Amino acid sequence: MKPHKHPEHTDNIWLALEIGNSRLHWALFIDETLYSAWDTDHLPESVIQHLAECQTLNDLLENIFPQGEFLTNTLPLCPLLVASVVPSQTAIWQIYPNTRVITLDQVSLKGVYPTLGIDRALALWGAGKTWGFPMLVIDAGTALTFTAADANECLVGGAILPGLGLQFATLGQQTGQLPLVEMQNFPSLPARFALNTTEAIQSGVVYTILAGIKDFIEAWLQLFADGKIAIKGGDRTLLLNYLQALYPEITAPLIVEQNLIFWGICKIIMGDSKEGIK
User: Fold this and answer.
1) Where, in this chain's numbering, is ATP bound (predicted)?
2) 135 near 232, Cβ under 8 Å?
3) Residues 61-87: what's their mean pLDDT?
4) Is 83 exposed, middle or buried (0-12, 13-18, 19+ CB in 10 A)?
5) Domain 13-101 has CATH 3.90.1300.10
6) Overall average pLDDT of the 97-119 stretch
7) Annotated active-site residue in 31, 39, 59, 119
């Protein structure tokens, strides 16, 4: 997302960080407006320590934002809101001043279980509070997850399985004869009945994942005919293209939004009373 205006004359700028299994996902907000979102690789502790010593927001963004020069003002360091599924990284990032770690008890979903991932909870909360409940969120990331809540904002449940890249990597690394198939954007759907090993792996992984997504969507709509469905994650575009080719009828209602976790954080910290960051 490209910045759309300069954050001038505002006291309520805040930075969100989602620490994922593969990458860091960042968002810069002005009040409830998402100013910009971008990704970086995980950073070593020495770099995080350096960021903690930055004196201004500009200094910080110059180190983590690929186009940090868009900030023309010298702005003070702002709060950093962290949601993490990597505990070792969570501890390191608390070096940064004015850090607030978002935990499951801050998400107002009803009926959650203690080990529900904060990423799944926040994405569901962000989607539901933005587009309405009942809501099913499909996260096509390192893991492919399904997480749903009913009209009363109560967790219905979900499922977790390895994502595209992880399935390819597992077959290549945990078997003696199968090759490692690199995760890539195949220009079109692979042949269903393949005549070589590499394409057979592509077929097996891709078609079973697509069939699984279709099955979960159909089961969700049987439970809640008016239920909404949102999809996020790094493989979302590829999977949507494949689904459109195979099952176009189920892709039409899908809400495509990569920043659901950030919207979930935003809903929490702003609150219904619009009181701002605490």
Assistant:
1) 18-25, 142
2) no
3) 77
4) buried
5) no
6) 94
7) 119
Output the pLDDT for position 15.
93
Same fold: 13-101 with 108-266: yes
Question: Confidence class of residue 148 from pLDDT cuts 50, 70 and 90?
Answer: very high
Rg, the chain, Cα only:
20
27 in Cβ contact with 94 (< 8 Å)? no
**Is residue 16 scored above 60 in pLDDT?**
yes
Q: Are 230 and 177 in contact (CB under 8 A)?
A: no
pTM equals 0.88
Is 24 annotated to bind ligand? yes
240 labeled part of a ligand binding site: no
208 is in an annotated binding site: no
In CATH, the number for domain 108-266 is: 3.30.420.40
Q: What gap in Å lies between CA 256 and CA 127, rounded to an integer?
A: 10
Residue 73 and residue 105 in contact, taking contact as beta carbons nearer than 8 Å = no
Instruction: Please tell me whether 192 is known to bind a ligand.
Output: no
Domain boundaries, the chain: 13-101, 108-266
- What angle in degrees, to the nearest 10, is found between the helix axes of 197-223 and 164-174? 140
CA distance 62 to 109: 36
